[in-house]
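Something for you to look into today, if you have time. Just paste the record in under my message, thanks.
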Amino acid sequence: MHEYSIAWQIMKKVFEECEFHGFKKVKKLNLRVGEMTMLDPEQLKFALQSISQGTIAEKMKITIKVVPLRIKCGEGHEVPLGKMQPSLTSNTSIPCPICGKPTKMSPLQECVIEEMDAE
């Protein structure tokens, strides 16, 4: 369960920002998680809630948006893959469904704090 280690890193950043700005309470945390991170949003949320107990972030509202894997061709068409990839890797070649040209994947192997509301 690598969600817990990611949650620790997220909360470390949250606490650092709060200390830097003098915030005393975190009200909301919005995250954007790439589909290829393989993070389970519910497990990540649970880990964040567990870590934040007894802290200034204890009662924060957590929202996690999972961003789907996308492909993009040289013509600029960008298409989400959705459920059509049973076992894709970064070396998989898929033609653009719009123009048929070769595409590259946007793996979105990231977990980003999009917004934090604190006071």
Remarks:
- Residues 3-21 form the longest helix (19 residues).
